[in-house]
Design brief:
Number of helices: 9
CATH architecture: 3-Layer(aba) Sandwich
Largest sheet: 7 strands, parallel
CATH class: Alpha Beta
Distance between the termini: 55 Å
Oligomer: single chain
CATH superfamily: NAD(P)-binding Rossmann-like Domain
Shape: globular
Helix content: 25-40%
CATH topology: Rossmann fold
Structural class: alpha/beta
Strand order of the largest sheet: 3-2-1-4-5-6-7
Strand content: 5-15%
Bound molecules: nicotinamide-adenine-dinucleotide
Length: 290
């Protein structure tokens, strides 16, 4: 796995594993099946990532999944105590920072450069739904929604993306990005903008072998969802929407995110993958009843 020089790489697949990108001249012919190390398509051995929001919820699961697949992580989070717990448990370096500010993201980039030099990508799970009826919704609410759900995507593109050598960047959107709703008027528009931002970054970085994607979760049993203390009736109603008849487990969205980091996802860029237990495929006409 020490092969980095594209000109001398004897086994293209090993070059691909190192950076999720193959030398262009070797892509003009189909790779013989015998040259592909299929057993390593889903591995991240030796790769280095930054996880924004590594201290809990989906970010903690992403961190543990990357480490489980042989990768290394620098974890960043605004919650020092939570981050220290995860960092101690998986043995990763960490940095306390607010990812929605330019100064916070610069701190993260400096830590990544000091720890790894270059990275194979970053995963940005930051985001939050902010509930308020549209009648009470103000410009300040709109600004807050766009800062909370997009500020980190913008700042990370400025200071973390240049550190990515080949590899993969993943943001977390939401299925709400393609639907209208009554409770959080700015969350869906901000997440929809995030999905187009992913396309902009994919266009910008594709030619140097950097892929950029998002996942769009349905409802997951994350700590925040559980802490909201919903009624049994509400929880049942939420669980009845996905075709699988249950809410998602956080490790199931983390697994989709980490798949996008692996060589197995080497030809996926500029897109958003829904992970929602089939909720978006439910009958939309009402013919199946409520
Ligand atoms: N949980 C769901 O059902 C669901 C559904 C759709 C979309 N999402 C999206 O998934 C993402 C993660 O959701 P979650 O429930 O795991 O979130 P979470 O609230 O558990 O946050 C994950 C981590 O991010 C950290 N964090 C929050 N703000 C930060 C900041 N400004 N700087 C640095 N760290 C910060 C938190 O401290 C926490 O450790 C969000 O973008 C959310 O919009 C979640």
């Amino acid at each position: 796995m020490a092969v980095r020089d594209e000109k001398t790489c004897p086994w293209p697949f090993m070059c691909m594993l190192e950076g999720n990108a193959m030398p262009r001249e070797q892509l003009t012919r189909p790779l013989p099946a015998t040259e592909v190390d299929h057993a390593r398509l889903f591995r991240l051995d030796g790769n280095k990532y930054v996880v924004l929001g590594a201290g809990g919820g989906i970010g903690e699961h992403v961190t543990r999944t990357i480490v489980g697949l042989g990768g290394r992580v620098l974890g960043a989070d605004i919650d020092a105590e939570a981050l220290a717990g995860v960092a101690g448990s998986v043995g990763m370096p960490s940095v306390v920072a607010d990812a929605t500010t330019e100064s916070g993201m610069k701190l993260v980039a400096e830590a990544a450069r000091a720890e790894f030099g270059t990275i194979n990508g970053y995963i940005d799970v930051i985001g939050q739904m902010h509930r308020r009826g549209i009648a009470e919704y103000s410009l300040a609410d709109w600004d807050l929604d766009f800062r909370t759900n997009l500020g980190h995507a913008f700042f990370s593109a400025l200071v973390l993306a240049p550190l990515v050598e080949h590899g993969s960047i993943v943001h977390v959107s939401s299925v709400v990005a393609s639907r209208g709703g009554l409770t959080a008027p700015g969350y869906g528009p901000a997440k929809a903008a995030l999905q187009v931002w992913v396309k902009q970054l994919a266009a910008e970085h594709g030619s140097r072998g950097v892929r950029v994607n998002a996942v769009a979760p349905g409802l997951f049993l994350s700590p925040r969802y559980v802490a909201a203390g919903r009624s049994t009736a509400d929880s049942r109603a939420h669980a009845s929407r996905p075709l699988l008849g249950r809410l998602g487990q956080p490790h199931e969205i983390a697994a989709a995110i980490v798949f996008l980091l692996t060589p197995a996802a080497g030809y996926i860029t500029g897109t958003t993958i829904p992970v929602e237990g089939g909720a978006l495929s439910r009958d939309a006409t009402g013919i199946d009843g409520p």
